[in-house]
Design a protein that fits this description.
Elements (H helix, E strand, L loop, with lengths): L7 H12 L3 E9 L2 E6 L2 E7 L16 E5 L8 E5 L5 E5 L7 E6 L3 E7 L6 H14 L2 E7 L7 H10 L5 E4 L8 H7 L3 E5 L6 H9 L24 E4 L5 E4 L12 H7 L1 H7 L16 H7 L5 H21 L1 H28 L1
Parallel strand pairs: 3-5, 8-9, 8-11, 9-10, 11-13
Antiparallel strand pairs: 1-2, 1-4, 2-3, 4-5, 6-7, 12-13
Helix pairs in contact: 2-6, 6-7, 9-10
């Protein structure tokens, strides 16, 4: 299991579970009620016990380390517990409840995949990087399909401005450009995140050294990719570490990503230290150092607009799961509604 990331620290913490007859394993593929686990004795198909008030603890996802009770003469192998997650890539679901969905756990490197065959969407890259930073892993932006770009160097420079502190690599699975550098940069458990058609599975196959992951052509009608990866799967890499391929993400909602946004927009945080007011919102306040930076060209308006948009979304998602915060956000609207009603009533009586 060392090839999958098991280490001495996890072994020490797992000793009491061994005394109870449990064995450790890592989830390489998870389905509803079942998961494939690689354990010391080999691959195991294990049942997942229904949650009994412990919530997410008994809901394993790909990348989780779990405690497994081996199969007996009349029983199947069973996942008893999900071990502590050192990191987790989490997004908000699109439902009204805004529940968190764990896309991958115990990840060391998040590779944000961006196709150079399509127009760059910097806002989407910033959104993905917020998830990556929030996970606790190290993000890397991988620009794919460089052979289909007229000026990959310029594109890389543009992306780098939207990804401060993040390595941006230009690659082509067709020509092999940048793959040696990418292999050297990736470490530990690596998850590939990006939309369908960005080249995740093709890139993954080059890293694996074999065509294990299904690939498909991009639709000519709209330039969008088909979902060739139907589930999240963990696979060992020949140069060490493991690769976690994911289905293409059509939508990525932020979930409690304050730290991630601080990393993505680090330069705005630095500028904000010189604002006149500590709680400056960087919209219309006097003495705002961020707005001053936009005026003199040190910060682009696009970058500030993206910051505001993602901050609002993150706050709104938190409000949907935090009753107190939701009440605070709703209070100004309620006050405004009361004022409007009072004004209407006053006008009515005057008439």
């Amino acid at each position: 299991m060392v090839d999958y990331g098991w280490d001495t620290e996890r072994e020490r913490s797992f000793r009491p579970s061994r005394d109870e007859g449990l064995v450790p394993g890592r989830v390489v593929r998870a389905e509803r009620g079942l998961c494939d686990v690689v354990a010391e004795t080999g691959s195991v198909r294990a049942m997942v016990l229904p949650s009994s008030g412990t919530g997410e603890r008994l809901t394993p996802c790909t990348g989780d380390w779990v405690a497994v009770r081996p199969a007996g003469p009349a029983t199947s192998a069973t996942v008893v517990e999900v071990l502590e997650r050192r990191s987790a890539v989490v997004r908000s679901t699109s439902s009204r409840t805004s529940h968190a969905q764990v896309l991958a756990s115990n990840v060391d490197t998040v590779a944000v995949i961006v196709s150079l065959a399509d127009p760059l969407k910097l806002g989407r890259i910033e959104r993905m990087l917020a998830l990556a930073w929030e996970s606790g892993a190290t993000p890397v932006v991988v620009l794919t399909k460089a052979d289909q770009s007229t000026d990959p160097a310029s594109a890389a420079s543009e992306v780098a401005e939207a990804a401060p502190g993040v390595e941006v690599l230009v690659t082509s699975a067709t020509t092999g450009e940048g793959l040696d550098v990418l292999t050297a940069v990736l470490s530990g458990t690596v998850v590939l995140l990006g939309p369908s058609g960005a080249g995740k599975s093709t890139l993954g196959n080059r890293l694996l050294g074999e065509d294990h992951l299904a690939t498909g052509a991009v639709r000519g009608s709209d330039g969008k990719g088909r979902h060739t990866t139907a589930w999240r799967e963990l696979l060992p890499l020949p140069h060490g570490g493991v690769l976690l391929d994911t289905p293409g993400l059509r939508g990525v909602g932020l979930h409690d990503a304050d730290d991630g946004l601080d990393h993505v927009f680090a330069e705005i945080g630095e500028l904000a230290r010189d604002c006149r007011f500590a709680d400056c919102a960087h919209t219309t306040e006097p003495g705002c150092a961020v707005l001053a930076a936009v005026e003199d060209g040190r910060l682009t308006q696009r970058r500030l607009d993206s910051y505001h948009r993602l901050q609002r979304e993150n706050t709104y998602a938190a409000a949907r799961t935090d009753a107190r915060l939701r009440a605070e956000l709703e209070r100004p609207m309620k006050q405004l509604s009361r004022q409007v009603r009072a004004l209407k009533q006053s006008s009515h009586f005057k008439a």
